[in-house]
Design a protein that fits this description.
138 residues, three-stranded antiparallel sheet
Length: 138
């Protein structure tokens, strides 16, 4: 009986520590993502986006947003959980207005259907991972 308890406890612990598989993307979204980070090296994650320009935001899928800083630097954000409807071109990601640093990890963003003018989802920003072309100055 004790052996069964130990095996069950081990199975429960193993299921809690299993790493979830990375999100899968449509082929065209994966290709776009790879193009944006091509030739760039990931740096240490940052809690907040250093500057925020909404026009520089590129939606990859319901989980990933890329901010283009320049041809040498992009910031990748994997939302904390999927942001349902984000990839739909009829929807917009709505955040509060930022003065100074942009969104920070944990800030809430809403997905709004621009045709119906209603919120269709929400999610929290994850950490911002800078991808920088080697030799680029900070």
């Amino acid at each position: 009986m004790r052996t069964i308890s130990v095996i069950l406890a081990g199975a429960v612990l193993a299921s809690c520590t299993a790493v979830p598989p990375p999100p899968t993307r449509a082929a065209n979204a994966q290709q776009h993502y790879e193009m944006l980070v091509a030739g760039k090296v990931p740096q240490a994650p940052m809690s907040c986006l250093p500057g925020y320009r909404a026009n520089d935001m590129i939606r990859i899928d319901d989980n990933t947003v890329v901010f283009r800083d320049s041809s040498s630097r992009v910031y990748v954000n994997h939302m904390q959980g999927p942001c349902t409807g984000l990839a739909d071109t009829n929807n917009a990601l709505v955040t509060r207005e930022y003065v100074g640093p942009g969104p920070c990890s944990g800030d809430i963003a809403r997905v709004v259907d621009t045709m119906a003018h209603m919120t269709v989802g929400s999610c929290a920003w994850g950490e911002f991972i800078p991808y920088v072309r080697p030799g680029t100055r900070a």
